[in-house]
Amino acid sequence: xxxxxxxxxxxxxxxxxxxxxxxxxxxxxxADRFREELAGRPLERAILGVYAELVGDRGPVADLGCGPGRxxxxxxxxxLSVFGLDLSESMLAIARRENPGLRFEQGSMLDLDLADGTLxxxxxxxxxxHTPLDRLPDLFAEFHRVLxxxxxxxxxxxxxxxxxxxDRPWGHPVSxxxxxxxxxxxxxxxxxxxxxxxxxxxxxxxxxLQESVPQAFLIADKPRAAAEAASASE
Length: 234
Fold this sequence. Notes:
Elements: E1 4-6, H1 15-34, H2 42-55, E2 61-64, H3 70-77, E3 82-86, H4 89-98, E4 104-106, E5 119-125, H5 136-146, E6 147-158, E7 164-167, E8 175-178, H6 183-192, E9 196-203, E10 215-221, H7 226-233
Organism: Streptomyces adustus
Protein name: Class I SAM-dependent methyltransferase
GO biological process, one term: methylation
C-alpha cells in the first residue's frame, strides 16, 4: 500500500465500519499485491505448520479476519477443516473465487455467530490490528468463548508502539490506522481472557520484504478442565 505516515489514532467511534469500508475499497488491489506473500515467508509457513499440527483433526478452525483467504487456503492444504470470516464482502468475494470448496462468511470477530466451545482452533492473522486497545479484552474473550477446551489460538501482528496510518492506498479515497502491539502486552491480555500461552515467536524485520518493524506470532491454548486434563494424561 502507499501513502503511509505515523499518526496518532483518531477516536474510534465506528472502527468496524471504517475497517469494512477500507477493505471493500482496496480488495482487488490488496489481493493482487499479497497473493504470493507466504511464498517468501518461510518462518510464517513454519509457524502455520506447527499450528496445524497442534490442532490436527480435532474439529473446525476459524480464520478470523480472513481477507482474500490466502491463509485460509494454506491451512486447508495443511489438512485443517477451516473456514474464513471477514467484515468485507469484497474481500470475501475474492476468497470464494480463489478458494472454491471452502466456506467464507461475513461477520465481526467481536460478535461471532458460533456456539460456545465449537472450535478446535482460531486464527487471528494480522486481523486484530484495527481493533482499539480498549476493545482487545472483548475480542479475546470472544475467542475464548468459541474455542473448545484444549483449543488453540494463533495471533500474528506487527511489533511496536506507534500505529501506521494508510491514506489513499492505490489511489482509493479511504484511510485506516494499522495498530502495532507489544508481545508482552498481548500475552498479558490473553492471560486475562483465560488463555495459557504456549509459544511466543518474534522475528526481526526483513528488508527484502520492505519491513521496518519485527513481526510477532503467539500461540495460546484454552485450558482443559482439571478433570479432563487428568483423564487425557492417563
